[in-house]
Amino acid sequence: MGRRQITVALGVALAAVLAAGSASAQDVVKIGMSFSMTGAGFNAAGRQAWAGARLYLQQHGDRVAGKKIELILKDDAGVADNARRLVQEMIVNDKVHIIGGGITPTALAYGQLVTQAKIATVVMISGASVTTTASPYFVRTSFILSQSSWIMGEWAAKNGSKRVVTLVNEWAPGTEAETAFKQRFTELGGQVIESIRIPLANPDFAPFLQRIRDINPDTAFIYFPGTQAGIFAKQFAERGLASSGIKIIGPGDLTDDDELNNMGDQMIGIVTAHDYSAAHGSPMNKKYVE
């Protein structure tokens, strides 16, 4: 997720800092990034965002308006307390001019810190609407999960879905996806017959997928972080949902580009909405993917 928007993220952040003159007396603009590079769950997104940042500098150079750009990476392992401590260290010790933010819980953890320090912070991964309310110094360049979920609610209502079960992770992005989908789907005449929530950490989809099979709706709206897509695909196949006649839809995390090639033919027919696809055919995207 962060990887795909990192070019815009760096441009926005650098423009903000240089326009404000906060680096005018400096030869170096320091961008401190707190991402999950290790730990379970979200290290793929962190590694992608970091790779995207380095790719941007390779393509465009490491100088903007006469200032050299320096990237500083800290591994918060996706833990909020770690992120708060590391961001504070980067502000106080490294004297960074910009913070690059990661997943929702970690970004929320240091909102107060960057507000007090008046540090421009670019949220590169988190998709929860609430994130940017944590500080007036936050700006988001990735996506908002509710947007793609809302669109799927509209798509479902216009494409024959009448009775839907929702299945989401129990955390801010998950509940937001559920709420946005239900609001749009029901106001267009659809019925959500059951809403199921599962733990974010170490999810076991199998019993919940079986529950969906037993309820037998015409459609299931499913959301989970893209890093869990491989687990979902395996258990989706084991529970026979591909041949059940139940339409599976959701935000783009369901068919994450990094996981899709290894998820099997059972994913054929699943419909998702997202802000980006590696398959997009523009010359710019082809060059980026390569």
Q: What pattern of helices and strands is seen along the backbone?
A: HEHEEHEHHEEHEHEHEHEHEH
**Tally of DSSP β-strands:** 11
Report the span from N to C terminus: 17 Å
CATH homologous superfamily of the largest domain - what is it? Answer: Response regulator
* Rounded average pLDDT: 88
Overall 3D shape: elongated
From the helix content, strand content and strand pairing, which structural class follows?
alpha/beta
Task: Give the tally of structural domains.
Answer: 2
**Which regions have little confidence, pLDDT < 50, spanning 5+ residues?**
none
Major β-sheet strand ordering: 2-3-1-4-5-6
Helix content: 40-55%
CATH topology of the largest domain: Rossmann fold
For the biggest sheet, the summary is:
6 strands, mixed
Beta strand %: 15-25%
Number of helical elements = 11
Q: Please state the CA-atom Rg, rounded to the nearest Å.
A: 20 Å
- CATH C-level label of the largest domain: Alpha Beta
CATH architecture of the largest domain: 3-Layer(aba) Sandwich
